[in-house]
Every structure is written in structure tokens, then in C-alpha cells.
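Homework help board

Subject: predicted structure for assignment chain

Our instructor gave us this sequence and asked us to write out the predicted structure in C-alpha cell form, then describe one feature. I got the C-alpha cells but I'm not sure how to describe them. Can anyone check?
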Amino acid sequence: MLRALITAALLIVPLSARAETAIVAGGCFWCVESNFESVPGVSGVVSGYSGGDLPNPTYENHEGHYEAVEITFDPAVITYADIIAKFLRSTDVLDGGGQFCDRGPAYRSAIFPQNAAQDQAAKAEVARAAADLGQAIVTPILPAKTFWIAEDYHQDYYKGQNITLTRGGVKTQAEAYKFYRKACGRDARVREIWGDAAAFAH
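My C-alpha cell output:
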């Protein structure tokens, strides 16, 4: 009877009361956002900037920050460790100078645990990934700093319908995103590193 009452109480607790967040940087935030919005248990992903000290960063000036995402998830459906495992297997964990065709400090990968439990889980997942690859992982685990939400036009860019001019011609944002992702070699490199364990590779 007590178990049934507890179960019933949990079912009526709103998601917001159970939700946790993970902050990671994996190169272009459009790509990381699109990857994780498809994951069961994830209720939202926001593109932004983190890791630096500059207040109110913008796309034009986010010096010291990484392009990052904040992932909101239900830990009853997917754990923080699972989020980090998927993140590592969807990035180039051997590249400390950027990600894929995007080079420079803002495009480096990183994990930003927000408490001791997340820090412990992140370290365990990095160690497991290194063991799986048989190589050192260069993606650092860094102290969490303020997560600043990016401009509206960066949110859900991968499914936007506004028209934009690209190197491949005039396209919708969604078309431009697909063109960019393929041209950047993201999925090909992830498959090269991780093989069948690659996550989100299109």
C-alpha cells in the first residue's frame, strides 16, 4: 500500500520538480542541440555560451566562452551519466583545438558538471570512453560557470524555415544546417572514431 502511494505521488510530481540539467560544449551548438532534442527523457536543449568570465556574451563577442548547450532531462528516464556517454560518442574527443571544421577556443569540447555527483559521473564516463578507445580523451571536465542563453535566432536553428544564403546557395535554415553538418564532416569523423558506438551520426 505504501509503495502504491509513493508511486502515485511520484506520478503527479511535475517534470520541472524532477528535472536536472547538463551543460556540455561540443563544437557548433546547433549540432549538439539537434542531437539531444531527439533523446527520450530530454525535455529541452538550449544553445548558449559558458566557461568564460565575460558577462552577457553575444555571438559577435563571446571571448573566453565555449559554444555550449544546456540539456534539461528527467533522471527517471535518462541519467546524467547516459547524457555524458552519448555526448562523448558524438564528438571528437581526440581534438583539443576545436571540433570538426570549426576551429578555435569557442569550438572546443568540454563538460561542465554542476555538482559533485555530476563531476564523479563525468569522470567515470570519460575514463570509460578512454578505455573503449584505448586512447586519452582530451575533452576536459571544467568547473561550471554561468550559462548564458544565445540569441533567439540560434535556438532550434536546425529546423528553422527562414531563408539564408550559404556557400551552397539560398536555403532554408534547416537545409543550411544539413548542408553545413555534412560539409563540416562531423558525422563522418564521429563514425571514424567510434565506429558502431557513434551516437547521432547521420
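Reply (TA_rk): Your C-alpha cells look well-formed. For the description, you could write something like this. The two ends are 47 Å apart (CA to CA). That's the kind of observation they're looking for.
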